[in-house]
Amino acid sequence: MNTVLELISQKLKSAFTACGYEEKYGNAAVSNRPDLCQYQCNGALAAAKQYHKAPIAIAGEIAEKLNGDELFSKVEAVNPGFLNLNISNKALAEYLNDMARAENLGFEPANCGKTAIVDYGGANVAKPLHVGHLRPAIIGESVKRLLDFDGFEAIGDVHLGDWGLPMGLIITECKKRFPELPYFDESYTGDYPKEPPFTISDLEEIYPFASAYSKEHEDYKEAARTATAELQAGNRGYRALWKHILDVSKTDLKKNYDNLNVHFELWNGESDADHLIMPMVEDLKKRGIAHISEGAVVVDVKEDSDKKEMPPCILVKSDGAAIYASTDLATLVDREAKYKPDKVIYVVDKRQGLHFEQVFRTARKAGIVRPETELFFLGNGTMNGSDGTPFKTRDGGVMRLEYLIRDISDKVLEKMADRDMDEEEAKEISRMVGLAALKYGDLSNQATKDYVFDIERFTSFEGNTGPYILYTMVRIKSILEKLASADGTAIDKIRNDVNFGFIKMGQTEREYGASEIDLMLSLTGFSEAVHRSADEYAPHKICAFVYELADRFNSFYHDHKIVTQEDVNVRNEWVCLIVEVLKALEICMDLLAIKVPDRM
Ligand code: ARG
User: From ligand 1's centre to the CA of 19, what distance in Å?
Assistant: First the structure.
């Protein structure tokens, strides 16, 4: 389906050509003076230079040409040469009817047949999910859904931190605490136990303990380093124990991500790329891309145009250990072999920007990805507390994600205390609304910017918040519910009737109300808003669209008594309109991975 802007531009272009001007001047934009008109075209001002004419004269000719066109209710040339345009009610109603009948309100995916990998999550095994993981998870899930909706085969990869020193530390601590376990008996040749020797709570205590202890005790740290190297070299007992660490931890992480409505297609970890590192390094050395510097294997990635310092990308440290960058590069080797992605997007804390710049440059230099493959670092800003520093618990520690979700849900529950609901339902709904508050509060900010977590504002039922959007959607559902029950039908039937065009707009010859037109105009912008968000990896643009739509719905609702409207044609027009608004909001909330309750 063409967008309204495209339809208007087509008309403008033919008018410009018909009047003897180049068609490139006929581009429409949404008006930046909505008090004067809905759309505008500034082409006459530019054309004036080429054709040595007064802009207002050109604008006048175009306006004349378009007068009487059914698409417009107004085409006006105003000084110094603008064209002010309004779309006719009839055309607007027809456009919305077409949207209602089309799949996904007429949105056409632009990237069918392409593949995108979104690398987000980045949780570390044996450590609880904390607020630092919140933004990548929330933003990444939405970006993945946007790309998927736009036609990509979108693959989310959690890229777990499951390799390296933390694993050695856990193994070392386990060995100290439970030396009798068979994992540490070098002469043991039998099968290892199927049951893990620890629970997730044990692990969450063991790891921080070992990490802190190693900072005080050099010999302990050395033992952990050795254990890490032995694990990576394939020590049978360590591998078996590590497998338990992974299983126990992944089960717990999955549960936590599920609770956030964040789901990964791939549960790969850093360890999955490990076997590819050394062959890759050898290859890069052989081709002269990598070289030895002070005992380490490095790739120079500095470019003449660099304004900042750009240190070489280290692949192997002087002690022979592979590191973070080599893991990310080997992971790209793996992804290229398995998926040939058209783009790989990393949603990771923006403080890792230098690392990704080094990795991307090395990948390009070494031809690990094809030249046309897009590598994009979507570096997210920090969620801060009210003091402007990264959000912490009251006693200054790192907040676990589940506690944050609990706190915000409790806050919503408090606010919903006056609702007529049983306790179970109230709890379930406040959890859903709480999550929406948290996720929307995050997503409505530009991903790269820091923001302040403000529980009062996020959980408010007024303003640009998750609860406000949900509340609006629930309100529309309840209007439809009322109409359905008065009719003896079901809400789904009404929605279907709109879908199939049995209930439609443009049935009456009447003046539309101002808030009604505003709502209709917003709705026509659906496809453009989604395309823009997908193209720019910008969920906050979906939020901006959703907020405008919800806000305009509420003004419309305030001005128009839908349920009690007696003229059935007028009522049906309104039903059609709000069914579409609900549909647009539902699609958008799904793109944000926010669940919507039926009532609240
Ligand atoms: N586990 C890493 C960390 O906690 C984040 C991983 C990000 N993704 C990546 N491909 N490097 O810092």
Answer: 59
As a whole number of angstroms, the distance between CA 207 and CA 259 comes to 24
pLDDT in tens, the chain (600 residues): 999 999 999 999 999 999 999 999 999 999 999 999 999 999 999 999 999 999 999 999 999 999 999 999 999 999 999 999 999 999 999 999 999 999 999 999 999 999 999 999 999 998 888 888 999 999 999 999 999 999 999 999 999 999 989 999 999 999 999 999 999 999 999 999 999 999 999 999 999 999 999 999 999 999 999 999 999 889 999 999 999 999 999 999 999 999 999 999 999 999 999 999 999 999 999 999 999 999 999 999 999 999 999 999 999 999 888 889 999 999 999 999 999 999 999 999 999 999 999 999 999 999 999 999 999 999 999 999 988 888 888 887 888 888 999 999 999 999 988 888 899 999 999 999 999 999 999 999 999 999 999 999 999 999 999 999 999 999 999 999 999 998 888 999 999 999 999 999 999 999 999 999 999 999 999 999 999 999 999 999 999 999 999 999 999 999 999 999 999 999 999 999 999 999 999 999 999 999 999 999
The residue whose CA has the least distance to atom 7 of ligand 1 is 122
User: Which CATH number among 2.40.30.170, 3.30.1360.70, 3.40.50.300, 2.60.60.30 corresponds to the domain 4-87?
Assistant: 3.30.1360.70
User: Where do the domains of the chain lie?
Assistant: 4-87, 165-259
List phi, psi (to 5°) of 30: -65, 140
**Is residue 466 lining ligand 1, measured as CB closer than 6 Å?**
no
| Whether the CB of 159 sits within 6 Å of ligand 1 | yes
| Residue type present at position 34 | P
CA dihedral for 96, 101, 104, 107, sign (positive or negative): negative
Q: Please choose from 267, 348, 401 the residue to mutate so as to test ligand 1's pocket, defined by most ligand atoms within 8 A of CB.
A: 348
**Residue 180, both tokens:** 């009798």
Is there an atom of ligand 1 within 6 Å of 61 CB?
A: no
Ligand 1 mean position to 376 CA, how many Å? 15
- 346 C-beta closer than 6 A to ligand 1: yes
- Sheet with 29-30, side-by-side order of all strands: 29-30, 39-41, 82-87, 72-78
Burial class (CB in 10 A: 0-12, 13-18, 19+), 320: exposed
Nearest residue by C-alpha to atom 12 in ligand 1: 122
Distance 130 CA to ligand 1 centre (A): 14
For ligand 1, whether the C-beta of 348 sits within 6 Å is yes
Tallying the residues shown for the chain, one arrives at 600
Measured in angstroms, how far is the CA atom of residue 104 from the centroid of ligand 1? Answer: 35
